[in-house]
Amino acid sequence: MLHVVRKKAFCKVLGPGTRSVIWFHGCTRRCPGCIADTMNAADEYESFTPAQLADWVKSNTGVEGITLSGGEPFQQPLDELAEFLSLVKQDTDLSVLCYTGYRYEEINEQKSMIPALQHIDVLIDGEYRQEEDLKQRWRGSANQRFHFLTERYRNQETEWNAAVERQIEMELTMNGKLLISGVPSKDFINKLTAELQRRDVNADFS
Ligand code: SF4
Predict the structure, then answer these.
(1) For residue 86, what is the domain's CATH number?
(2) Going by CA atoms, what residue is nearest to atom 8 of ligand 1?
(3) Is residue 121 part of a domain?
(4) Which ligand 1 atom is nearest residue 27's CA?
């Protein structure tokens, strides 16, 4: 089963166009300054078969693609991750972006990771480093690289690498929880968290 902490049908701040975003549960890398630590620590997640998750993606009419985040997508059951992506790509033209704390070279050396990698259009690799946070678009820190693995967005490589405007989306759920999507800086998270705690609001950053 694939373990998902959160999914968002329509998101405009984690890749081009409107995208369905899936935040997978858990990452053992524990990088200092990780902005997704709520995804790593949360013991509440939903489990999906590859087919169930692909059906959810396909029900989100009008999206340009999907973005995988976490947590660490490549620490999910790899055969199921590959099957999920294969099902998504099978009869759609949805693009696939994937954030990972691994370096591209590490993934390429792991035979078990290759089947999932083959379905990804753009891999955004490397862990978040607070000291290298330059507020670039779609990247948490400057060490993270876009790897254009297919032709899908390759002609936008220069633009993607140069873009520095960063946006986030905030939603308040009916049970009073604030959900934040995007790649907010650690500084921003710390300040906002302190303010929200003062006001007794539960926030979830991803
Ligand atoms: S690899 Fe990414 S999600 Fe995992 S601990 Fe590091 S920054 Fe956080």
Answers:
(1) 3.20.20.70
(2) 34
(3) yes
(4) 4
d(C-alpha 146, C-alpha 141), whole Å: 12
Q: 8 near 20, Cβ under 8 Å?
A: yes
Task: Tell me which of 57 and 188 has the higher pLDDT.
Answer: 57
Q: Nearest CA to 94 among 7, 175, 153?
A: 153
51 found inside a domain: yes
Give pLDDT, residue 43. 74
pLDDT given for residue 199 in this prediction: 85
Q: What pLDDT score was predicted for residue 125?
A: 98
Within 6 A (CB) of ligand 1 lie 27, 29-31, 34, 36, 70-72, 101, 127-128
**90 within domain boundaries:** yes
Asked if residue 42 lies in contact with residue 11, where contact means CB atoms within 8 angstroms, the answer is: no
Please check whether residue 16 is in contact with residue 22, taking contact to mean a CB–CB distance below 8 angstroms.
no
* Domain interval for residue 138: 2-165
Residue 195 within a domain: no
